[in-house]
Amino acid sequence: AAGGEPVAPEFKQDISRVGVVGTGTMASGIALVFAQSGYDVVFVGRSQAKLDGVLAYIGKTLDRSVAKGKLDEGGKDAILGRLTGAVEREALGDVDIVVEAIAEDLDLKTELYRDLDRICKPGAILATTTSSLPITKLGEATSRPEAVIGMHFFNPAPVMKLVEVVTTNDTAADVDETVKALCANVGKVAVSCGDRAGFIVNCLLFPYLNDAVKLHESGIEIDTIDAAIKEQAGFPMGPFELLDVVGNDVSLAIQKELYGEFKEPGFAPAELLEKLVADGKLGRKTGEGFHTY
Ligand code: 3HC
């Protein structure tokens, strides 16, 4: 209420079982976030090897917490015990919410949403982590656009507190509120956002990252720029370190989306960003991007 205390969001429906679709960096981190907070998690990937990859990341992350004395072996086993992998989407039939974090490809996601609509029980919320695709279109692929919403986590999901909760014109108010309550329950800070290119954070962050690449193209060393930003702005990472964490393919896709939407000449993707992606130098995940790992 204006001028009053902010009202804490309330669960409008019970959420105890969470589905996660995808086996990449974001999906793995998100599965951990929910399992760590006591939710039963069913995560779905295309092969057993990919499911094993998720568990390997989670196991490694939890081992680090144990080594630091932040978690004991019993706590670790309890978290692992709440995670179930599946190669069949049918395993999502009884979850209360699905958080989808597959590749940023509208055709792939549309196909998935049609399936989720068929498979998931009535009332289940269908959340997407897309950072660059129109969520309205995903809703239109289902018979329940009121249940479709964005939950835009940041990388690394277990560490970054922010989640942009993105509603379309079709999203039900109760779904919005439930998702915000869920964010609070897993220790995240939710901000509301409409279904517009870049939402809030990427709309500001990626032009800055793209400009950093152009600044380097004009002759300034990568390390100099990274160091200057860290010292001056107190950012935890310089722009090139961050680009390598996010993945140059992801950054390029987001920058193209912003350029297409806003048509600002300065938003045109930097040539070097395009070149690194073409060369498969995607950042940390491939061992080389702007820096080498
Ligand atoms: N998974 C899980 N936990 C991780 C992790 C990961 N991948 N990386 C780091 N951590 C944990 C560490 O275990 C440690 O935990 P602790 O506090 O319990 O001990 C904590 O995070 C801090 O890690 P480190 O001490 O190793 O290193 P740093 O202090 O340098 O932190 C960082 C690493 C959190 C990645 C920090 O550098 C940072 O905040 N960087 C900026 C990240 C950022 O801006 N992300 C947003 C990108 S934009 C985006 O995601 C949008 C999308 O649409 C592209």
TrEMBL record:
Residues 198-293 form the 3-hydroxyacyl-CoA dehydrogenase C-terminal domain. Keywords: Oxidoreductase. Residues 18-195 form the 3-hydroxyacyl-CoA dehydrogenase NAD binding domain. Pathway: Lipid metabolism; butanoate metabolism. Belongs to the 3-hydroxyacyl-CoA dehydrogenase family. This is 3-hydroxyacyl-CoA dehydrogenase. It comes from Nocardioides panacisoli.
